[in-house]
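fyi for ur records
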Amino acid sequence: ADSALIAELLDNVWDVKSMVSPEIITASVHNGGYGSVIYIDSQPVGAAFALVGRALPGLNGPNLHSHATGVLPEFVGKGIGEMIKRHQWDWAKENGFDSITWTFDPLVRRNAHFNLVKLGARVLGYHQNFYGELDDGINAGEQSDRVLVRWDVVGVDAPLGKSFVEPTPNSMVIETPADIEQLRKTDRVQSDGWRARQRAAFESAELNGLQVVGLSNDFSYVLEVRDETDGV
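which gave:
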């Protein structure tokens, strides 16, 4: 029943049918994965689902890959997403995970700020069309370019946010649109142009050995020479 509730909430958030089936959630949780639901006055308003993965390079314990975390639209902006992620971190710590990873669309400015600044996750890499073309209510017809981030658990007493990063003369900067979600509804040509430009910039950075080190105060990605100790 809990798996079915998580599945229903994720479907409602993404406006899709069977984003993750209850059977897959049950099998994953039974095998050590993570599932959670958050309530306000007995009403379920958000949920998360994460899979068990092998240890990242340089670590020994397993990685928890957070496949989906969602909050119903009418409850967005109330700090619920952060509550879910911090519960997930605490759970990972208690259950012997060394790290947590997840992906997000690098065009979505508010997600970049949430993940890199508020939560303090760091970018491992950029992946072109990671899930293929999507058909849910949020991303229909979109190429699913994604940034993969890592949130350390082992050796950390509590997750901390990070400050904005000031670019140096040697930094590469990749901009984000103010509101790509609204732009996709009003001007698809312009939103597609943002995807193409950002993809070209990230791929150029990869070829030149650059990685994201943070977010500037104008919500642009700041990239510098890659730290080879990080795994992707």
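The chain is about 30% helix and 25% strand. thats all i got for now
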